[in-house]
Amino acid sequence: xxxxxxxxxxxxxxxxxxxxxxxxxxxxxxxxxxxxxxxxxxxxxxxxxxxxxxxxxxxxxxxxxxxxxxxxxxxxxxxxxxxxxxxxxxxxxxxxxxxxxxxxxxxxxxxxxxxxxxxxxxxxxxxxxxxxxxxxxxxxxxxxxxxxxxxxxxxxxxxxxxxxxxxxxxxxxxxxxxxxxxxxxxxxxxxxxxxxxxxxxxxxxxxxxxxxxxxxxxxxxxxxxxxxxxxxxxxxxxxxxxxxxxxxxxxxxxxxxxxxxxxxxxxxxxxxxxxxxxxxxxxxxxxxxxxxxxxxxxxxxxxxxxxxxxxxxxxxxxxxxxxxxxxxxxxxxxxxxxxxxxxxxxxxxxxxxxxxxxxxxxxxxxxxxxxxxxxxxxxxxxxxxxxxxxxxxxxxxxxxxxxxxxxxxxxxxxxxxxxxxxxxxxxxxxxxxxxxxxxxxxxxxxxxxxxxxxxxxxxxxxxxxxxxxxxxxxxxxxxxxxxxxxxxxxxxxxxxxxxxxxxxxxxxxxxx
Length: 512
Hints:
The structure is a single chain. By secondary structure, the chain is mostly helical. It contains 21 helices and two strands. The chain has a two-stranded parallel ribbon. Helix 9 runs antiparallel to helix 14. It is globular and about 70 Å long.
């Protein structure tokens, strides 16, 4: 058969799960399967005019989708990590819990969160996003509010467990949802903007906790309780508003005109990778992910940034407090600048990686910053130098989360294989939150050498080392493919069968 044209893994593609999700009717699917495009509503326009229309459409999608989804993830990350701020406002003493029990309350969140995460996209596919996402937000808002009403360790554990269950659907769900709207070469910067909400939540959380903490004593409750109650109630209200602010997939989104709907569907279908085609789930897609060495190496890389992420976000207020900034309000406020810096660099790295397609090098460069930062925390005696180390730590952790997730998506072709792979990678990363929850013990104050040492090891061994190894192996595989060393895989196969090979097809060139 004729050898298909070579494609770069960062070139546009449709990441939709099935064509119904992107609005194609069955007749159109049959007619345009494998390469043929739906009718072009802008056929009469010049290329320059088409490009202008496409830019306007993309801008419209960005303004209607990204800001609200960023707000939802900001709220999500704030609600799972504000327990670190609550700790400074008397959580442990009021509930009579030990440092070990506090860490157990952190850990139980990640257990339920990780176990539920792989199942949530199944619900999202069966329910509309405008229903599924608001419902889980209201549920976790209720869980968050009840955390402010607990009186003992058992109550805190129960609330954290159910908080993990309720929050599990947001991060993988929104990533899947956005993939049904954008091409892959448009996705990296948007993933970075979306994830930067986590860094913003750190800044916002410190400021908010400092203000709410002044309510201690009102209603006979501590400042920590009011942090949970007010932030939980705010989540419920935002969840209710999301019934109107979260839109469905392109075929049903109410803000699109019929012509714009056609344009969205066509630009996704125009992506010539196998993800643009309809797939029915088969176990072979599951095993394709399980038996792919990239799945497990990416899991190691993601572990290298996700473990440090949770350690940093959960314990930064305590770390700053241990540096000698003992006033609760001051420690809360000093936690803001590192997050603000991380937000800026996360978006910058997303832009650079999209343009250069060098995601591995971006991971390595930022992990060096993080490693230097935690080395400063380990070795420096001056509180000022150690505080500077928290800046570098944040800069080395946050950009790698969005960049790694995009890297996995870029190099995993096929809707269901990508879904399974992302489930393994993200799930394994979140399970490392259990480790992160237990490495900063009160008895290790003020140096926290064990905690800083573990984070340093994660950054150097798993994130930096794993990214370097992945880049070398992918570069070698690209070389073999360019020299025709994998062409035998397409011999005797139809074009549809070649498409079914996904990222194993010889003309699929990996993003480094």
